[in-house]
Amino acid sequence: AYGKRKEEENAIKHYEGAISIRENYPDAHYNLGVIRLARGEMAPAIAAFRSALKFPPHDERARHELVDALIIDGCFGEAMTLEIPAPAICDWPKTDAKVFAVCSIRNGSVDLLPHWLAHYSKLGVDRILIGVFEDVSADIRAQIEECAKKWPLTTFSQRWAGTTESSHEEQRRQGCREAGADEKTWIVHADLDEFPQFPASLAEIIAAAEAQNIRAICGWLLDRVAADGSLPPVRSAPTLFEQFPTPCRLTARILRGGIRKIMLARFGVDVVSGHHFLRDGSTPRIPLGRPEQYVV
Questions:
Q1: CA-to-CA distance for 113 and 153, rounded, in angstroms?
Q2: CA distance 181 to 173
Q3: Fewest CB atoms less than 10 Å from the CB: which of 82, 138, 224, 247?
């Protein structure tokens, strides 16, 4: 820990030195902000990202990080002003696009799976796809099979040994292809602990997105705890929202993790592993409503 801290301090001195020589050096400001953010030093991190955005080429990464830093610091309103505004909810042309929800399961608890399946079924997705890694235990496979008796899910095989995160992502894409995904299909990129909420139905969200040529939609991670602030084991009933009624920002404020999430994207859109950003670095837009209404 000491060694890492020392490396960070040396890097800070390096970037501050570079900026003292050449103030219009956006990469130095950006890298300085990333280090400050990782150290939980919010004010200097925000200042560094603001400085990075003052100079060409106005890197989208700096805007992403500035929004996240502002939210972590509790400045949600200001953060939202940096997002591209969306039109109000209205009537859009109908869409016939299909929506697939995709999740991968390895070893570990699957207590969330029934809740996850119920949520996505209620959300109105057309297909639910579960990637199952080759080393998943017989007990977990049996639990997945039991869930398949109640919810219409499709499983596909994934390989863990000797592979990378990017290859896991390609395995998920192959699972989508085999299920019939094409360029018109929308994919909900999800983990087992993610329960997205939108300001309108999926059909309305997608129709609005297609009318505006939006190919990816982002939202924000929001954590939930029990009424007393604890994190007890998940029960089969009642719903997760009843078991964990209190929203909070543990990921942002305690773990200092990134909270932007790609919620929906066209099948042809390249989303990086973890589903936080697009491969091309562009900023996803929201098609209607307000940014804070898109919650993961």
A1: 11
A2: 9
A3: 138
